[in-house]
Specification:
The structure holds three protein chains of three kinds.
Chain A lengths: L6 H7 L2 H12 L19 E6 L14 H10 L9 E6 L6 E6 L8 H5 L5 E3 L5 E3 L9 H5 L6 E2 L28 E2 L5 H5 L5 H5 L5 E5 L4 E3 L4 E3 H7 L15 E4 L35
Parallel strand pairs in A: 1-11
Antiparallel strand pairs in A: 1-8, 2-3, 4-5, 6-7, 8-9, 9-10
Chain B lengths: L8 H16 L3 H27 L14 H12 L1 H12 L9 H15 L1 H6 L8 H4 L6 H21 L3 H10 L6 H10 L7 H34 L11 H27 L8 H32 L4 H9 L4 H20 L6 H28 L14 H24 L5 H8 L23 E2 L5 E2 L6
Antiparallel strand pairs in B: 1-2
Helix pairs in contact in B: 2-17, 3-5, 3-12, 3-16, 4-5, 4-11, 4-12, 5-8, 5-17, 8-11, 9-10, 11-12, 12-13, 12-16, 13-15, 13-16, 15-16
Chain C lengths: L1 H24 L4 E6 L3 E3 L3 E10 L9 E10 L2 E11 L5 E7 L4 E9 L8 E10 L36 H4 L3 H32 L1
Parallel strand pairs in C: 2-8
Antiparallel strand pairs in C: 1-3, 3-6, 4-5, 4-7, 7-8
Classes of the chains: A alpha+beta, B mainly alpha, C alpha+beta.
């Protein structure tokens, strides 16, 4: 397993992007181009993800809960029932057995959630990510109804988070501290990417199944290998979830069931996700999804 | 304004006395009733406070069924608000006269149901403290914003439309209540009557205003319920992704609205002794409409079932199985039997077509229409979007209490209104209906009486001619 | 038929002749020559060519040449495969590559070798200039006033260059127009009510 660079380390060392994004939010509404992540030539990034299902065995081989989810929870301090990237085990079409599908927010380019939000609390960034401003969210949950991927999470009660979240400065890019009565979801870690790191899930995947990339440079990496996205997708029959709905997700999948890491489709089941701090905050009461 | 027919003074006196009676005196039973309602409302407020305190975790809603009783009741109350529009506006436009004695009640239902229904989205909000952001950052593209705009417009319009035909009755109250009435009443009626004297000019102006409103309120009402349906139909979920939702919800709204007005009519008729003015005619005609709408609703449901069921898009199989053989089967069966078949049968048989029978049918329909909204929302949300097991939704005590509180609030506002506004549109009954006999109360197989001059005349040649007969 | 069979036979013979010495002494060394345009603009395809020659300088036909570029992204850097092509009779493999990273890009043509030929490669740099945004994705049909997605709102304006509030663009005009019509009708009704009062005052005088 690779070492996951955590938020606190990032905040301490990198700082640049995070501080700009947070501090600049009040001051700069105009001409704040510098804050959006750019290439060396100043072009905007267009974040995307490619998940190679051939390499995903639901972490059966290491007998652990899916590491992407675990790392995401620990990195984002996600409250108890929330798995912003959730590894669904779904039946394989046309054959026996199952496949594991790690499902983050799909960051649709025609996002139903963005369209229905009455106050613009869910919004699309020029980088192509869909973020939620929990300081504005009114908790009407219209977006949860609209999301066709079940990727939105509501803080029904007081969210269970470790105490250090209280000292984090809020930004829609990392959503901490969580606010009761608002909606949360995967934010695609643009703050991490700006600081030159992969998202927690991609860092943590033991098999390098999650590629995070930029459609503008047409490059993606899983931490060890860089691929040209367009070629990688075309050569491997990539698809997107519920493509026919026209939501245009930014998350691509390469079909498979973990065969590249030696999983048989008939080996089913995975370890349950855990939340290390579920009992650490008084008053917080985890709920079921 | 129609020409005023000959009105017997005694009849008119009776009508005015009855119509103004609730404004004059209030009994102990009324205050007991108000107290009872206030207790329920206080309980609901207490439960709402727990919800504010702990968050929506106290409800049965969770991420996968993220809307519950609150949104169901929102749709339900906005639905019954269509009673007023239908009875007052559509029937006034078509110059039907039998409904004149119940228009006021129907308009009450509209205004009160809108006021109560509009509370539900607020109750449902996770951060109700940020409600003003809707004005600060509101987006025109959001179905919720359309709801807010449409309901505001409809509430304003229907309040105006409630007020217009009340002006002459306010003037009547001002003139007739006398010095015995409390001071606030006298001042209120004085101001609210706008100096109405019933002069021809005033009548012309009022007539113009009412005509404008009755025409404009119909498209507004249709738009309101269409937009309410769009908070579902604007999403891609299999159960909601349908273009029939708009008309379907409008029809359902009118259906439940008719049921609501029949029930209110039956209650107020008894309590306020209005038997002379609210007769079997009103029940019968509204019952016929109810019967017609059972067919319309059945048609909409069938066409939805056939069109989506034929194709069986992914997820639809699950949805239909849930409704027809799964956990929702009893409710779904009740919706068909209690909501459409039995009320239709009640109206079909003359023996059951009594005031009691029609009221019973209306109660069945009203309950069925709440269940129908439940069956749209909950099974619709239950269809799994990804590979997970369907989640259950059981409303909690908090949700039921708040629903009970809302129903109590609805009744409370109606009860208060009945003490302030004359519950029958007295002047309209006088002008438009007059003391005509209650046609429907007569024995059923009455041969139509035809005026002698319209009878076919036997000619000398022994042939019948219908010349000169006006249909 | 005869001629075709003859051609196949002679081809086989030719292969045998070339292969014979190589088989004896292991894979023969090869070299690759690469030709690239010195500079291109972002978004332009670059035609690149590589020639595979054996030790004697004779072209190697049918060799698979992979074109890669050394590119880094976030935590990793490696040779990213851009295209592959087989050499023709003149030993030349041609491909159009699509570079989307600006700067000086080291492009490598690599021949992986086969039974007779040893692997070899050659590199050249392409200067990629320009700053035009290449990737754009529109979302469906844009209906003015209906489905325009909001971009970053005011409070998190840091994420958006020149984040504008939603109001100046005023995309809701169709809804606003309908509302204005209805509300002005309401207004006209209220005006009529004022005239009712005014009429009462007149008749009182």
């Amino acid at each position: 397993m690779r070492k996951v660079i955590g938020r606190r380390a990032l905040l301490r060392s990198g700082m640049a992007a995070g501080a700009l994004a947070v501090g600049g939010s009040l001051a700069a509404s105009q001409g704040s181009k510098a804050q959006a992540a750019g290439t060396s030539g100043g072009r905007l990034r267009r974040w995307a993800m490619v998940i190679d299902l051939r390499k995903c065995d639901g972490c059966q081989s290491i007998s652990q809960p899916p590491q992407c989810t675990e790392a995401c929870i620990q990195g984002h301090f996600a409250p108890e029932p929330m798995q912003w990237i959730q590894v669904y085990e779904s039946p394989l079409e046309g054959q026996a057995g199952t496949q594991f599908v790690p499902t983050p927010c799909q960051h649709c380019q025609n996002a139903p959630c963005v369209n229905v939000c009455p106050v613009g609390a869910t919004f699309a960034t020029p980088e192509g990510t869909v973020l939620i401003d929990q300081m504005r969210c009114i908790g009407c949950r219209l977006c949860m109804e609209a999301c066709m991927y079940d990727r939105r999470f509501f803080n029904w009660g007081t969210p269970a988070q470790p105490p250090q979240t209280l000292f984090l400065e809020y930004s829609p890019e990392h959503q901490d501290p969580a606010i009761r009565g608002t909606v949360m979801k995967c934010d695609f870690c643009p703050d991490m990417a700006r600081a030159g790191r992969l998202p927690y899930c991609a860092q943590a995947c033991p098999h390098g199944a999650i590629y995070y990339g930029d459609l503008e440079e047409d490059l993606a990496t899983n931490g060890s290998e860089v691929v040209k996205i367009s070629r990688f997708l075309a050569e491997n029959n990539a698809y997107r979830l519920k493509e026919d709905l026209g939501t245009k997700p930014r998350v691509h999948y390469i079909p498979g069931h973990g065969e590249a890491v030696g999983r048989m489709p008939t080996t089913t089941g995975r370890k349950a996700t855990t939340w290390p701090w579920q009992k650490t905050i008084g008053g917080a009461l985890p709920w079921q999804r | 304004m129609a020409e005023v027919a000959y009105v017997p003074p005694a009849w008119r006196e009776r009508l005015e006395t009855r119509g103004l009676a609730p404004l004059r005196s209030t009994g102990v039973r009324y205050w007991a009733w108000i107290g009872f309602l206030l207790v329920i409302i206080a309980w609901a407020v207490f439960e709402y406070a727990t919800q504010l305190n702990n968050g929506l975790i106290v409800t049965g809603m969770r991420d996968r069924i993220s809307w519950g009783i609150y949104i169901i009741s929102f749709v339900f109350f906005i639905g019954i608000s269509h009673a007023g529009t239908l009875l007052s506006a559509i029937l006034r436009v078509t110059k039907a006269r039998w409904q004149m004695s119940v228009t006021r009640m129907a308009e009450f239902i509209t205004v009160v149901a809108l006021m109560v229904g509009a509370l539900f989205p607020l109750i449902d909000m996770g951060r109700v403290d940020r409600v003003l952001e809707l004005f600060q950052y509101g987006r025109w593209q959001s179905p919720l914003m359309w709801d807010i705009l449409a309901i505001t417009t409809y509430l304003t319009g229907s309040s105006l439309y409630l007020y217009l035909p009340i002006i002459p009755d306010f003037a009547l109250a001002r003139d007739r209540l006398g010095p015995a009435a409390p001071r606030w009443r006298r001042v209120f009626y004085q101001v609210a009557a706008l100096g109405w004297r019933g002069t021809p000019e005033q009548r012309k102006l009022l007539d113009r205003a009412m005509t404008t409103m009755m025409i404009v309120i119909i498209p507004v009402a249709v738009s309101v319920h269409t937009v309410v349906s769009w908070i579902f139909a604007m999403t891609l979920r299999v159960a909601f992704n349908s273009s029939v939702f708009g008309p379907f919800f409008v029809a359902g709204a009118i259906f439940s609205g008719i049921a609501a007005i029949i029930i209110l009519m039956a209650v107020l008729r008894k309590l306020l002794h209005l038997e002379e003015w609210i007769t079997r005619t009103q029940f019968l005609y509204l019952g016929y409409m109810l019967a017609a709408f059972t067919l319309i609703m059945a048609y909409f449901n069938l066409q939805e079932l056939v069109v989506t069921g034929y194709k069986m898009e992914a997820g639809q199989t699950f949805h239909f199985a849930e409704l027809m053989t799964g956990p929702f089967m009893p409710l779904y069966a009740y919706y068909w039997i209690g909501g459409m078949i039995v009320p239709g049968l009640i109206m079909l048989y003359p023996r059951t077509r009594t005031i009691a029978g029609i009221t019973f049918a209306a109660v069945l329909v009203l309950v069925a229409m709440w269940i129908e909204r439940f069956l749209i929302v909950v099974p619709g949300f239950r269809v799994p979007l990804m590979a997970y097991g369907a989640r259950n939704y059981f409303p909690t005590l908090v949700e039921w209490s708040i629903l009970a509180g809302a129903v109590a609030l609805f009744m409370l506002i109606i009860s208060v209104f009945a003490k302030i506004f004359p519950i029958i549109s007295i002047w309209e009954v006088v002008e438009h209906r007059g003391p005509e006999p209650d046609a429907a109360a007569e024995p059923r197989r009455v041969r139509p009486t035809i005026r002698p001059e319209l009878r076919p005349q036997l000619t000398a040649a022994g042939t019948t001619t219908t010349e000169g007969v006006q249909p | 038929m005869k001629r075709l069979a003859l051609a196949i036979l002679s081809a086989l013979a030719a292969t045998a002749i070339v292969a014979a010495p190589a088989a004896a002494a292991g894979p023969a060394p090869t070299r690759v020559r690469i030709a690239v345009p010195p500079s291109i603009k972002l978004g332009e395809g670059a035609g690149v060519q590589a020639q595979v020659l054996d030790a004697s300088g004779a072209p190697v036909a049918g060799a698979l040449v992979t074109f890669t570029a050394e590119l880094g992204f976030l935590e990793a850097t490696n040779d990213v495969v851009l295209a592959d092509a087989r050499t023709d009779k003149a030993g030349v493999a041609s491909a159009d590559i699509d570079l989307r990273t600006d700067g000086s890009i080291k492009v490598t043509a690599r021949f992986a070798g086969d039974a007779e030929h040893a692997a070899s490669s050659a590199s050249a740099a392409i200067q990629v200039g320009g700053s035009s945004q290449l990737y754009a994705q529109g979302a469906g049909v844009k209906l003015p006033g209906f489905n325009e997605a909001p971009t970053a709102p005011g409070t998190s304006a840091a994420l958006l260059p020149g984040a504008a509030s939603l109001w100046p663009r005023f995309s809701g005009w169709p809804v606003a127009l309908v509302l204005m019509i209805v509300w002005s009708i309401y207004g006209s009704v209220v005006v009529v009510l004022f005239r009712v009062t005014a009429s009462a005052r007149r008749s009182a005088q």
